[in-house]
Amino acid sequence: xxDACLQLGVDVMTAHWEFTLGQDRVxxxxxxxxxxxxxxxxxxxxxxxxxxxxxxxxxxRPINGVPVAIVGQAFPYTPIANPRYMVADWxxxxxxxxxxxxxxxxxxxxxRSSSCSRTTAWTST
Length: 125
Known about the structure:
- This protein is an alpha/beta fold.
- The protein has one domain: Metallo-dependent phosphatases (Purple Acid Phosphatase, chain A, domain 2), CATH 3.60.21.
- Helices cover 27% and strands 24% of the residues.
- The chain is built from 4 helices and 8 strands, in the order H-E-H-E-E-E-E-H-E-H-E-E.
- The chain has helices spanning 2-8, 23-33, 78-81, 96-107; strands spanning 12-13, 39-40, 46-47, 58-63, 66-73, 90-91, 113-118, 122-123.
- The strands form 3 sheets. The protein has a 3-stranded mixed β-sheet with strand order 2-1-8, with no helix packed on it. It has a 3-stranded mixed β-sheet with strand order 4-5-7, with helices on one face.
- Mean pLDDT is 91; it is low at 120-125.
């Protein structure tokens, strides 16, 4: 999927099955393979110890010249749909209140539209 995303020109994505690679590999992909190429957003993935964000919650990108906020919502049931050890240090969930907070924050930065990228959805400009 990493090579496919890069070859297809994916600009923004969140994750679903990618978490079966394990948290260390996912971080490696985001911080190295995707760096400067693909914005990886997931507002609902936080550390299990302190609840700190693991990934950027959203990104604002121009689409056809129009600034659009894209908020990431990774597959919320990852820890129960897959072996827990793969993402042992992270928690997921739907996190509706946090999602709305991120949408409000992003809207405050001036985009003309907002979108929620869920599971393996992506957008390409």
